[in-house]
Automatic annotation (TrEMBL):
Keywords (A to Z) from UniProt: NADP
Organism: Candidatus Nitrosotenuis cloacae
Signal peptide: none
Domain Enoyl reductase (ER), chain residue ranges per copy: 17-353
Keyword NADP assigned: yes
Gene3D superfamilies: Medium-chain alcohol dehydrogenases, catalytic domain, NAD(P)-binding Rossmann-like Domain
Domain of life: Archaea
Protein name per Swiss-Prot or TrEMBL: Zn-dependent oxidoreductase
GO MF: oxidoreductase activity
InterPro entries registered for this protein in UniProt: ADH-like_C, ADH-like_N, ER, GroES-like_sf, NAD(P)-bd_dom_sf, Zinc-ADH_QOR/CCCR
């Protein structure tokens, strides 16, 4: 089979200089594994971290790819819930399945947790023609969901779902701010909040504002403008008038970090919630603690989601209530171009790659 492999890290984001297509032997399933033919894979920012070797040195030689959908072609002797021919998508959170966190449905808090395709290896990920997963990490794709849409959902949808539903526990009628509404995470965040009957303000760059509204955002604000937060607060004042309430936000969906952090904290109402995962513009932020202790602010961290949460989210995709947005589709030979496009951020939705 063909696989996309790199043997060294790139220190200057010259992905073409390290990515190679190599012939590899097809995997043979262990007793608890399924082997599947990859039909579509979605790019993820951890692919870039892996090729950089920062902030984590991934195993070399390396095959990336955490968000993958395909057809099962063989199964191990102990596999009981998946059969050959099933259409599956990866749940990329590998955990021990034995500790208290795992057995209580919080496998994302397992101390032995690894992200498949990012931290696994050598040579174990989804950017290849055939790959393998433990049975417990294979999720059946609903019949009316395509491989491309399932791959687009795998990591990003379940993370957004866990942030808003599992952690922030959003409620109908809340005013929710989705930071980075034009990103893969933000696109799902907008739709999840609308599914739960919330009013949504999305931030994005100017060229993506109208697209955010098209997928459900009630308001869209350019977060590249210095006073973006003032515009958001003004919207919250108008919202409060209609509700006879207090201006400010109930929930902020945050994965940007950097210089926006304190502006976000200032926008929250008393007792409101900020849920955060990732920090694409920087993680080393300074917090004005007055916005936290004085207002009783809830700051929640979030990483991946449980397998059950991914299944719940895919159910709503199958019902047409959440719609993946695919920006572009590339072949495996165009991998360097695809990753460079994602790095530059000139996308709306997920980038898909096919073997």
């Amino acid at each position: 089979m063909r696989a996309l492999v790199y043997d060294i890290y790139s220190t200057n984001d010259d992905f073409a200089s390290i990515l190679q297509i190599k012939d590899m032997p097809e995997p043979v399933p262990k007793p608890n594994e399924v082997v599947f033919r990859v039909r579509a894979a979605a790019l993820n920012y951890d692919d870039i971290w892996g090729m950089r070797g920062s902030p984590l040195k991934v195993p070399l030689p390396h095959i990336s790819g955490s968000d993958v959908a395909g057809d099962v072609i063989s199964i191990g002797d102990d596999v009981s819930s998946i059969k050959v021919g099933d259409r599956i998508v990866s749940h990329g959170n590998l955990s021990c399945r034995l500790c208290k966190n795992c057995t209580s449905g919080r496998e994302f808090d397992c101390k032995k947790r690894r992200v498949w395709g990012f931290e696994t290896g050598p040579l174990w990920g989804g950017y290849c023609e055939v790959t393998h997963l433990p049975e417990v990490n294979a999720v059946k794709i609903p019949d009316n969901v395509s491989y491309e849409d399932a791959a687009a959902c795998s990591m990003t949808l379940m993370t957004a779902w866990h942030m808003l539903v599992g952690r922030a526990k959003i409620q109908p009628g809340q005013l929710v701010l989705i930071m980075g509404g034009g990103s893969g995470m933000g696109i799902f965040g907008i739709q999840i909040a609308k599914l739960y009957g919330c009013t949504v303000i999305a931030t994005a760059s100017g060229d993506k504002l109208e697209k955010c509204k098209q997928i459900g955002a009630d308001y869209a604000v350019d977060h590249r403008k210095e006073d973006w937060h003032k515009q958001v607060f003004s919207i919250s004042k108008e919202f409060a008038k209609d509700k006879n309430g207090i201006p400010g936000l109930d929930v902020i969906f945050e994965h940007i970090g950097g210089t926006h952090w304190n502006k976000e904290l200032a926008l929250l109402k008393y007792g409101a919630t900020l849920v955060t995962t990732g920090a694409t513009t920087g993680y080393d932020v300074q917090s004005d603690l007055r916005h936290i202790f004085f207002k009783g602010t809830n700051i929640l961290g979030s990483t991946l989601a449980s397998k059950a949460e991914l299944e719940d989210a895919l159910y709503w995709v199958s019902k047409g209530k959440i719609k993946p947005v695919i920006d572009s589709v590339y072949t495996i030979e165009q991998a360097a171009e695809a990753h460079t496009k994602m790095l530059r951020g000139n996308i709306f939705g997920k980038v898909i790659m096919k073997p």
